[in-house]
């Protein structure tokens, strides 16, 4: 028998999240935007301005005045939540409600929902207890898995191979997708700012929790930072001890792939040049000027090939063997093209080889 959700109105711990697919975050939209429990909806009992107003009353007038004003605002907002988010929910609906510390904000909504007849519960300790759980779990969970690290020079198509591996049914941890960054000087995604460190951690834990520890997890070779975000040490240590697969893509295909993926820079020479100027201490102003001239002339084949040979490839060569010592024994794969089907072919073959090796090891 599956475990039943706890009785309505109770406080429950983080472990009970598995019993409650419906999660209601009653904190302010700003708090929710920084981080929240994956799968939660934002249903604030105090919005950003209302929370600031109550806080100001508490600091400048009195706790009593703040509670009086807060109660009125919370009551109105709970009525709205019941009429919108809760409309049409069945009688056995069992959401888990949380706020910052598991106090009055979540308690008020959980109480109303329970009085209506739903099996609503309150997260004991609120978001703070969840965050402590994330930090503690990320310190040990990544070590439980066996990783296969996808290595390769810049533009080799590592991310495309991860997508293809996922399509082929493999377990894939796409750190750059979670981080909304391609992991290099030019790695910012257009119109997609990076998440907060806390939200990155939450998504990472959610992904890891869904993996089967008896099967390998494919992950791209990453440094300790992806853009502004830090990769947990335990995960990084496990990755650096893992077996590797090397994507050995010919340079002409790498140039073509990078032109596809960085179109937003190729269409904005000023933005590209502002980024490339960060390389001036390494390559000198004269080289930066040459790259800028190539970009403005539309000579992107020359520009990309030169960036690879002068900067990205030497940088990669210096770091990969230091950070991933098993790369020298890596299985090499060579894409015949840069389209999705070319990587799908490689992914299917790779999954079969990895499964065969695993079967032999078990036998």
Describe this structure in words.
By secondary structure, the chain is α/β, with parallel strands linked by helices. The protein folds into 2 domains: 126 residues, Rhodanese-like domain (Oxidized Rhodanese, domain 1, 3-Layer(aba) Sandwich); 222 residues, Rossmann fold (3-Layer(aba) Sandwich), CATH 3.40.50. It has 15 helices and 12 strands. The strands form 3 sheets. Strands 1-5-4-2-3 form a 5-stranded parallel sheet. It has a 5-stranded parallel sheet with strand order 7-8-6-11-12, with helices on both faces. Helix 5 packs across helix 8 and helix 13 packs antiparallel against helix 14. The chain starts with 10 loop residues before the first strand and ends with a helix. The mean pLDDT is 92.
In percent, how helical is the residue content?
Answer: 40-55%
Named CATH topology of the largest domain: Rossmann fold
Main sheet?
5 strands, parallel
The helix-strand sequence is: EEHEHHEHEHEHEHHEEEHEHHHHHEH
Report the mean per-residue pLDDT as an integer.
Answer: 92
Distance between the termini: 34 Å
Q: What is the number of beta strands?
A: 12
Beta percentage is 5-15%
What is the spatial order of strands in the main beta sheet? 1-5-4-2-3
Q: How many separate domains make up the residues?
A: 2
- The CATH architecture of the largest domain can be given as 3-Layer(aba) Sandwich
Alpha-beta classification:
alpha/beta
């Amino acid at each position: 028998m599956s475990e039943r959700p706890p009785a309505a109105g109770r406080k429950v711990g983080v472990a009970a999240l598995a019993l409650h697919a419906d999660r209601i975050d009653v904190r302010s939209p700003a708090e929710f935007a920084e981080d929240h429990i994956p799968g939660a909806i934002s249903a604030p009992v105090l919005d950003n301005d209302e929370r600031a107003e109550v806080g100001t009353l508490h600091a400048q007038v009195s706790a009593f005045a703040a509670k009086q004003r807060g109660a009125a605002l919370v009551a109105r907002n709970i009525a709205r939540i019941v009429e919108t988010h809760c409309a049409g929910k069945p009688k056995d609906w069992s959401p888990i409600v949380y706020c910052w510390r598991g106090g009055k904000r979540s308690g008020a909504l959980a109480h109303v929902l329970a009085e209506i007849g739903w099996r609503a519960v309150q997260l004991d300790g609120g978001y703070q207890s969840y965050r402590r759980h994330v930090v503690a779990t990320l310190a040990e969970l990544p070590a439980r898995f066996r990783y296969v690290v996808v290595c390769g020079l810049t533009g080799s198509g590592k991310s495309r191979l991860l997508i293809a591996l996922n399509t082929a049914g493999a377990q894939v941890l796409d750190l750059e997708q979670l981080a909304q960054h391609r992991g290099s000087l030019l790695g910012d995604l257009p119109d997609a700012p990076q998440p907060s460190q806390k939200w990155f951690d939450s998504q990472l834990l959610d992904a890891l929790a869904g993996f089967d520890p008896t099967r390998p997890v494919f992950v791209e070779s990453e440094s300790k930072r992806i853009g502004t975000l830090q990769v947990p040490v335990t995960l990084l240590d496990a990755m650096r001890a893992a077996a590797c697969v090397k994507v050995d893509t010919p340079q002409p295909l790498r140039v073509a792939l990078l032109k596809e993926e960085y179109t937003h820079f190729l269409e904005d020479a000023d933005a590209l040049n502002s980024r490339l100027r960060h390389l001036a201490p390494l390559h000198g102003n004269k080289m930066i000027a040459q790259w800028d001239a190539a970009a403005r002339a539309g000579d992107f084949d020359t520009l990309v090939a030169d960036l690879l040979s002068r900067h990205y490839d030497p940088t990669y060569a210096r770091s990969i063997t230091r950070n991933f010592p098993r790369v020298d024994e890596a299985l090499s794969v060579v894409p015949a093209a840069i389209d999705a089907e070319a990587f799908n072919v490689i992914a299917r073959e790779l999954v079969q080889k990895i499964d065969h090796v695993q079967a032999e090891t078990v036998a």
